[in-house]
């Protein structure tokens, strides 16, 4: 008996699904050097351009000088320091929730929240296009696990009829690979009508969405009763690292008691919390970042339509170009790269079979001239491919 890893890897390669890690040799930003090649990149989730902001860098530096580097221990032992606590209070204020709890990563926040809230005898219902961490969390919880059709309240309602025990409805706020926004007012109404709780992972909504960057719940004006469990991540528009769950005092106390990915891990470096406090301030107050981003989104959509690309129904910085076939998506991405443009091809199993795509993301750090260069590159590649990209 042996692990035939070579055969498994060869099969993945043959299906055009083999993954490689581009080596980034510069900080995040529109202009990068990847594998030795200067490129104009459209694939970072640093939507507001804060990951390499001088004030955020300075806050990290000053935080390290004051607090040292390591978190030292779990939050429950001696790892919960003043900057962590101050950040939790600032995140509660941003979300308009009574409290927020800091996690080390979004993956862990999702695992922690779902497994602390439901278990055997309960039900978890998820959008079929939810982020992998939410799907993994549902499976790990031991609750009855069911997926409803994408953003479909009717499909959810049918499953709610059959739900037993405590029922958690879980959805992305902004869908990470499609860019569309969950129909939260309707989903919240369905969940409430059945006494279920709605949990929203708004990793891609905080920053770009809402008048003050408060994400999808600010966008729709949804209360704690509508969305009892709200998750955000700090590695995207906040430009730092980590995640949080916001909600009632009882929710947060329950997570501190029962969320294993919260309890059994070392707290993040306190200096990182100092950096996030600064980026949170910029995220809330510098409205020009959101406004400029929206200008670029409109510019890109209009230009892409003019060259005959079929975009997905997205008003967010995530603007995927549907290709279909995985091999063709990789080829398209390589052709762009030859022209100095970096756009990642996203393939199964990250997205459903037959829906490989180029995931274009725009950030406030891009200029209109750079978006124009992307559009020209796309038009050029399309012409060379000699066919509609949607009919592979
Ligand atoms: C990125 C992402 C996560 C994971 O967050 P990390 O902090 O990177 O672990 C969770 N949910 C969604 C929707 C994401 O896009």
TrEMBL record:
Residues 39-377 form the Aminotransferase class I/classII large domain. The keyword Transferase applies. InterPro entries: Aminotrans_II_pyridoxalP_BS, Aminotransferase_I/II_large, AON_synthase_class-II, AONS_Archaea/Proteobacteria, AONS_Proteobacteria, PyrdxlP-dep_Trfase, PyrdxlP-dep_Trfase_major, PyrdxlP-dep_Trfase_small. Pathway: Cofactor biosynthesis; biotin biosynthesis. Pyridoxal 5'-phosphate binds at residues 106-107, 176, 204, 233. Homodimer. Its cofactor is pyridoxal 5'-phosphate. This is 8-amino-7-oxononanoate synthase. Belongs to the class-II pyridoxal-phosphate-dependent aminotransferase family. BioF subfamily. Catalyzes the decarboxylative condensation of pimeloyl-[acyl-carrier protein] and L-alanine to produce 8-amino-7-oxononanoate (AON), [acyl-carrier protein], and carbon dioxide. The modification N6-(pyridoxal phosphate)lysine is found at residue 236. GO terms for biological process: biotin biosynthetic process. Substrate binds at residues 19, 131, 350. Its EC number is 2.3.1.47. It comes from the Bacteria. The keyword Transferase applies. HAMAP family: BioF_aminotrans_2. Keywords: Biotin biosynthesis, Pyridoxal phosphate, Transferase.
